[in-house]
């Protein structure tokens, strides 16, 4: 459980850096691209923390981001609509990593506030669930 708590703390910090970047009004192209990169590492931190949570607490196996989000839905951490949004978020993350097209960058940036809120929600729900278990 200690490793999971460390991963969750790292995820919370990553979520905060993403929120900070999203608070920039009228970002330059460089700031926009930096925000997208923050999304990438925040996404990685959250899905890996989720994966560890699923293994250690829920006894569910998930070997990919999409598998983790589906399993979070099965475990009741995400609703059905949130699971769909998380899967779409994984698609956006894959687009940022594997290609760079200006129009795609703009489209992804425009959806980052919603993605950021969902990433925050995932971590806070897992933290709450662990707190309930430890009582």
Explained architecture:
- The chain has six helices and no strands.
- The longest helix is centred in the first third of the chain and has 28 residues.
- The radius of gyration is 15 Å and the shape is globular.
- The model has no long low-confidence stretch (mean pLDDT 95).
Which secondary structure elements does this structure contain, and how are they paired or packed?
Elements: H1 2-22, H2 29-56, H3 65-74, H4 80-98, H5 102-110, H6 112-134
Q: Tell me about the biggest sheet?
A: none
Q: Could you please say which CATH topology applies here?
A: Four Helix Bundle (Hemerythrin (Met), subunit A)
- Poorly predicted parts: none
Q: What is the CA–CA distance across the termini?
A: 14 Å
The overall average pLDDT, rounded, is 95
Specify the number of helices: 6
Compute the gyration radius: what is it? 15 Å
Residue share in β-strands? under 5%
CATH superfamily: Nucleotidyltransferases  domain 2
Our count of domains comes out at: 1
The class by helix and strand makeup works out as mainly alpha
Oligomer: single chain
Q: Based on the coordinates given, report the CATH architecture.
A: Up-down Bundle
Q: Report the top-level CATH class.
A: Mainly Alpha
Q: Bin the helical content.
A: over 70%
Number of strands: 0
């Amino acid at each position: 459980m200690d490793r999971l708590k460390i991963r969750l703390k790292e995820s919370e910090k990553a979520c905060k850096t993403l929120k900070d970047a999203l608070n920039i009004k009228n970002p330059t192209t460089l700031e926009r691209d930096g925000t997208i990169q923050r999304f990438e590492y925040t996404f990685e931190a959250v899905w890996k923390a989720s994966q560890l949570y699923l293994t250690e607490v829920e006894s569910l196996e998930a070997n990919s981001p999409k598998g983790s989000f589906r399993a979070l839905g099965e475990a009741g951490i995400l609703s059905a609509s949130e699971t769909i949004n998380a899967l779409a978020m994984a698609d956006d993350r894959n687009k940022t990593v594997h290609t760079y097209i200006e129009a795609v960058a703009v489209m992804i940036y425009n959806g980052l506030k919603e993605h950021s809120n969902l990433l925050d929600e995932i971590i806070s729900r897992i933290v709450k669930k662990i707190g309930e278990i430890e009582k």
